[in-house]
Design brief:
Layout: H1 10-21, H2 28-51, H3 56-66, H4 69-77
Length: 90
């Protein structure tokens, strides 16, 4: 880790280990995914407002299938299902 390993403290060791293992933008990537999902939701809502009279189940299914698989996995973990959860819940 370092030539002078005796001067390292545990906190610094773990900080440097984290920085070595994960890229600088490690925390930025999930935020970008979330922002993309929010943008998609807004676009869908705008389309549905223009079309009018779209059933909620269709809205939920379209939203669900358009989401990134990692986001879908998190929704499943929260026990949400595209067959039965409301649009607001999803």
């Amino acid at each position: 880790v370092s030539e002078d390993s005796y001067r390292w403290r545990l906190r610094r060791f773990f900080t440097e280990l984290f920085n070595h293992c994960f890229p600088i933008n490690f925390r930025i990537k999930p935020r970008e995914k979330l922002n993309a999902a929010i943008k998609m939701i807004r676009q869908l809502e705008n389309l549905w407002n223009m079309i009018g009279n779209v059933a909620e189940r269709q809205r939920v299914t379209r939203l669900w299938t358009g989401l990134n698989p990692s986001i879908q996995t998190e929704l499943w973990k929260k026990e949400l299902k595209h067959e039965s959860s409301s649009f607001r819940e999803v």
